[in-house]
Write a structure and sequence with these properties.
This protein has helices spanning 2-16, 30-58, 63-87, 97-120. It is mostly helical. The chain has a domain at 29-120: Substrate Binding Domain Of Dnak, Chain:A, Domain 2 (Up-down Bundle), CATH 1.20.1270. The N and C termini lie far apart (67 Å).
Amino acid sequence: MRAALTWATVILLGSFTPALATDCSTATTQAAMNSCAADDFQSADRKLNATYKEITSRLQALEPARQLLVKSEQAWIQFRDSECMFATSSARDGSAYAMLVNQCKADLTRERTKRLEAYLRCEEGDLSCPVPAR
């Protein structure tokens, strides 16, 4: 009885084990490519969020500037999502649509991150920079 219960548990747990991580450099199925594109976008988004958080921490004493950054970021997210919907609209009904949207979002997110990172490297006294140097 105990052996049967052990085997049943192993079989049951095996069915819930997540699939092995996909090697995105060799992904050949659309599902794998969709998953890789989603992972890439999530990675780019995490980096953007970390950069954004760094800027907001530097703007703590400058509430009007912080509020403008928040408004700008909200508008940018709306732009990014709308732009990617437009840019991928010809594939909307296809199996590659999710991959294309995530690739677009990842690319635009990396561009936005570079822009925000530039604010973190402003030199002291740079009046064109809204983020104070450390």
